[in-house]
Design brief:
heterodimer; A: about 160 residues; alpha/beta; Nucleotidyltransferase, domain 5; six-stranded mixed sheet; 4 helices; elongated; B: alpha+beta; ten-stranded mixed sheet; about 15% helix; globular
């Protein structure tokens, strides 16, 4: 059977894209399934490697975030102190961190009062690099607790479940 | 476009113009791709006693004799379980560090013997660790020869990243001293793992030490509750792919989980049967703490507190 010569103007006549459509539909369904409906409440900070964990708990609400990477400590994306200095100090409480956190806590309390909502316990998500020493981690936690953030959660990478 | 009709009356496939749909797909797929999260973030909760940080110098609370008072001490090369003032034998372990270099493959570095292993099956996502005979020892190096420094100056570009710190458990059988345990490389224990890195155990919670002990069709379980499944070739809800099962160094965290599962089952009636305190030294990396907390949580101790060792 001789092939019909392809016309140059509207050339889509004998281009069969049904199979391509099939593939696209499968990709579309896969991506839709992969997509989170609630979006990302927690975004990973840069130059930070979170540890892998089997924890399945995800974040339910937006919380204050404290980031401890190999160079510095950030409270709500503002650098407050260098990590090395924290490791060197003897005191359990990291003073610049405590100040920043207390200010945040005051703001939260004011906001709760203005809206008439109940003032919940201060919740904070701490993102620590996996190589951070326990000493720094402990001081970070102590500072959070001292500033009124008693509910500390650590961010981790979810390992594939069984 | 009108569809032609054949002589016998059967409708020919209508020549749909799918191009607009294709255009839509081409737009939708990149958008969804950019939004898809392939690695999910999760959180680990920790129970902090209110205000206890305030009286760090104060006297510790009185010890309740009836309670289990379970705690795990995390050291550089050991894990130790304490309960009711006594301790269980230490789980000794070697650190094997898994590095991923900026260039080339990922590999494992065994600092105690200065051995290097290369993951030959990394490209396919598998595990096949073979010893790199060309490695001369000494400092850890990437496959292209770049040495990996222990510490980096501020702002210095990192040569390699630690992917994981593997705590390879050692057998303490018949050993009288720590030197004996660590002196003999043959004391490193082996275990069999499935595709999601869970160790297989038999009905008595004993680890399988070699893949040759397993065969397709047999029932196996992991350290988790109700985890019995079959080994086979077909994938399914209760079937593990036998092809993906691999043998590796036994993780000290699995060894810990095994002991903790036993303790949890035995003392389930006690009021603090779900509590555990994790102790660690100042220099212990965060990764190890999280792994120990994972092992504790999976063994049923979900109320985890942290404390400092020797300070």
């Amino acid at each position: 059977m001789p092939r019909k010569p392809r016309s140059f103007g509207g050339g889509s006549d004998d281009l069969n894209i049904t199979s391509l459509m099939d593939a696209m539909t499968i990709i579309l369904v896969f991506l839709l399934k992969n997509m989170d409906a609630e979006g990302n409440l927690l975004t990973q900070a840069d130059n930070l490697q979170l540890p892998n964990s089997s924890s399945q708990k995800t974040v339910q609400e937006v919380m204050l975030s404290v980031v401890v990477d190999n160079n510095q400590i950030l409270v709500d994306n503002t650098a407050v102190i260098e990590t090395d200095l924290v490791a060197q100090q003897d005191s359990l409480f990291v003073q610049p961190m405590v100040e920043a956190l207390k200010a945040k806590r005051e703001d939260e309390k004011k906001a709760a009062m203005a809206t008439g909502g109940a003032e919940g316990p201060g919740a904070v998500i701490v993102q620590l690099d996996k190589n951070i020493s326990y000493d720094v981690m402990y001081k970070t936690m102590a500072s959070c607790g001292f500033s009124g953030y008693g509910n500390v959660k650590f961010a981790v990478m979810q390992r594939n479940a069984e | 476009m009108a569809s032609k009709r054949k002589k016998n009356g059967v409708a020919d496939a209508p020549n749909l113009d799918l191009l607009p749909v294709m255009a839509l797909m081409t737009v939708l797929i990149p958008i969804l791709l950019s939004m898809a999260s392939f690695q999910k973030l999760a959180v680990v909760e920790i129970n902090m006693p209110e205000r206890s940080m305030m009286n760090a110098d104060g006297a510790p609370p009185e010890v309740d004799d009836q309670a289990l008072n379970l705690s795990v001490a995390v050291g550089n090369d050991y894990l130790e379980i304490w309960a009711r003032g006594g301790s269980m034998p230490k789980i000794f372990a070697d650190e094997i560090i898994e590095y991923r270099c900026q260039t080339g493959d990922n590999f494992r570095y065994h600092p105690r013997y200065q051995i290097r292993y290369i993951n030959e099956a990394a490209a396919t996502g598998g595990h096949k660790w073979v010893q790199d005979k060309s490695f001369s020892g000494g400092q850890a190096k990437c496959l292209d020869g770049t040495p990996i420094p222990d510490t980096y100056a501020k702002g210095e570009k990192r040569v390699a990243q630690k992917e994981a710190i593997i705590m390879a458990a050692r057998s303490t059988e018949g050993a009288n001293s720590e030197e004996e345990v660590f002196g003999d490389p043959a004391r490193l224990l082996r275990s069999v793992y499935n595709a999601s890195d869970s160790a297989y155990v038999d009905g008595n919670l004993e680890f399988y030490t070699s893949k040759s002990q397993l065969h397709p069709g047999m029932a196996v379980q992991t350290l988790r509750e109700n985890s019995v499944r079959k080994l086979g070739s077909a994938a399914g809800p209760a079937v593990d792919d036998f092809g993906a099962v691999y043998e590796d160094w036994r993780s000290a965290y699995d060894e810990l989980a095994k002991v903790l599962v036993g303790i949890h089952n035995r003392f389930i009636d006690l009021p603090d049967a779900d509590n555990i305190i994790v102790f660690a030294g100042d220099e212990i990396p965060f990764d190890k703490i999280i792994q120990v907390m994972d092992a504790a949580r999976e063994s049923g101790f979900w109320n985890i507190q942290l404390a400092k060792l020797g300070g």
